[in-house]
Amino acid sequence: MVSGYITSVTNKISYTGHINPQTKEIQPLLFHLENVRYLAKKNCPLKMLINIVCIASLLHDCGKLCSEFQAYMKEIMEFGDAVSKRFIDHSSAGGLIIENTAGNRLVSKVVGTMVYSHHGLYDCINLETGQTLSDKRREGNPEIEEVTDAFFQLYNKSEIINLMKAASRDLKAVYDDIEVELNKYAVKDGLEFYQGMYQRVLLSILIDSDWTDTACFSNGLPLPEGISQETRDAVWKDMIQSYELYMQRLNASGKASKLNQYRNEISKRCYQMAQKSESCYWLTVPTGAGKTLSSLRFALYHAQKYEKQRIFYAAPYNSILIQNAKEIRKAVGNSKYILEHHCNVQYENEASEEEYRKLTENWGDSLIVVTSAVQILNSLFSGQKTNIRRMYNLCNSVMVFDEVQAIPVSCIELFNLAVNFLTLFCNTTVVLCSATQPSLARLRENNLLNCEEMSGEAKKYQEVFRRVEIVDRTGSEIGGMSIENLKDFVLDSFRTYGSVLVIVNTRKTAYDLYEALEECVDNKALYHLSRNMCPEHQSDELEALKRDLEQKRPVICVSTQLVEAGVDFSFACVIRSLAGLDNVIQAAGRCNRHKELEGMGKVFIVKLSHEAENVDKLGEIRRAQSACERLLYEYEREPEAFQGGLTSQSSIKRYYELYFHKFDMATTKFPVPELETNLVNLLGENDLAAFRYERRYGKKMPKRTLKQAFQTAGEKFEVISENADISVIIPYNDIAKEQIAKLENAYTSPAEQRAALQILQRYTVGISCYKKEKLKNALHSISDKGILILNMDFYDLKKGILDRAKKQFLNF
User: Fold this and answer.
1) pLDDT, tens digit, for every residue of 14-28?
2) Counting beta carbons within 10 angstroms of the beta carbon of residue 343, is it exposed (0 to 12), middle (13 to 18) or buried (19 or more)?
3) Quick one: which of 15, 310, 338, 528 could link to 29 by a disulfide (CB 3.0–4.6 Å)?
4) Residues 440, 282: Cα–Cα separation, whole Å
């Protein structure tokens, strides 16, 4: 791994980089720097970044050349774990060396920031003082001259300067290219944001290379070889063959419906588009049109033709991920190269847990990664180093986002800018799948650039997949339906249509309606599904419900929106409590799904009273309701303006125009109210930093100066608020009880405890603080672990968590 930059290997390995305290084995610093450079160059997915990551790799740990750090290493060598751990700054020196050597150039700022941040993000400008990160690092570094001398004894100075110059030229070309691309599309927004995204890619490569070499040394392992292009080509070929055979079997299985002709047509169109070099696509087809398999066909052929490194399949809900991962595995085989990365993955044993942990560290050894949209967004914006580490592997890939309309409103502009960055600059192809594309309505800024419709005939497929009639019943009761009104309407529909799915917006409404119906309907014909039930319980109920539907038994199912997407079942009638048009159309996808009915299925939109359904704390749902209600009013007055009805592209576009109009500009930029700014600004122009800088230094910031608040933005970013739920474990069955017993046993090993907790993800329900307080006598804690277990007297096998116990006990 030794490069030509080294002056001489002799006597240069006396500087220690790492020590294994148990084995007393030493890794010379020279070997570590060279290994990191080798891995960074090998793993770098974008050729124009190679020189930049190489110089950063050689500089990242050179602060360890100082006498204080070397003395600390000697102590560890002599006394092992008995030495008290202490922090010695070894990440400042490398950044200062390039600044002192190359001067106040862009390459100094970019590489310096990489080196300063390889143990954790920092803001480039302090948001309180206006001080630059570089000036901050210059404070208190008396050993910089010692480290600089040692570094240039270790490495040939002229060769290092040449590498810095090459990195500088490449960086200028990268920044020039951003301006060229933005001018091409005549947009002004996003320049600094894309510069910041390049910074994150570079840091991601450095962190992964550093961590990988350190882990290999600590565990006595060779550096990983990775997947060769030859292997990759062979696997894509095998997967494509498996896929085509699977589709042939599927079409010949006798399960063909009237719609299969059009599903095959869409799939063929996706194959044709895979041959093209464009990098951003919409796949806008109705629910039930086979998006998963059609987009998979595109991804496989496109990855093969353009030598993409991997395929990512992302979806908003674990229920969709689990179902589609199963279908992907059946279609392509070769499970060795398929990774499911979500919280419901279970391990068979300690070895499989360790293997899974390694695979999810950076996604690098997998060719198809099935993961949540949250994981992808975290890799792009979260401040956690584990997330940053994965980010570079999104480059030179194919990414399929299913149900893209479910991206939270606050993340929309961040998401759009990230997609633009990946598709314009990172050689990544992105496919955005939805029956209700939110991008049909343009935002005031930060829209998707150069995105092409893959299906080609979205309007045609809207018509041929029309299986339902949507009926507006929102005005049937002044002030909205009560639970009693809704119960009567459900029973009338049940008598008329035989199978009814009711989807409401809150767990409480679902619970209350189920209880009202319980008095009127045979328990065997009545189902309840909500996140008041643990995932394992939900799965059991779903399977029983599917069996009843397949056998044409009369059923009523009351559910929250968890069945709205990614669940393959079909009712004759769906009743949807007023929400967004996207919710209504997704719900309609559970009605007459395969056109099995003689006529159209019925989808009713109803409005509930405030008492029946309180959504005061659900801001996005309230705005969606308002936009949908306005659309229904416009449609009633002038239906001919919405060609094709409420599921048409014109209706969807108008809905999103109304929906986004309900938000102020900052809402879609991920607001940070305590700083009176937003994440789009913090990661781009960063007006606050520019203001603070000018006040401190008395001058405006120079152009092409990094000013992004990476640390602040990373800390503020979260896709799903962690404040919402408290996790409670349900002893739902013998498996759950067995795992809980392991956690309660003081002699259970840490590995067994981790495995138990992983299995218990399937038996966990999130509850609010208010609910926890109500249930306090029904919860017991595994004291030293802070894990809450629910008494099963407060859990019903139809309703989930109860407010009161099923049994009443006498106190003696």
Assistant:
1) 899 999 877 889 999
2) middle
3) 15
4) 10
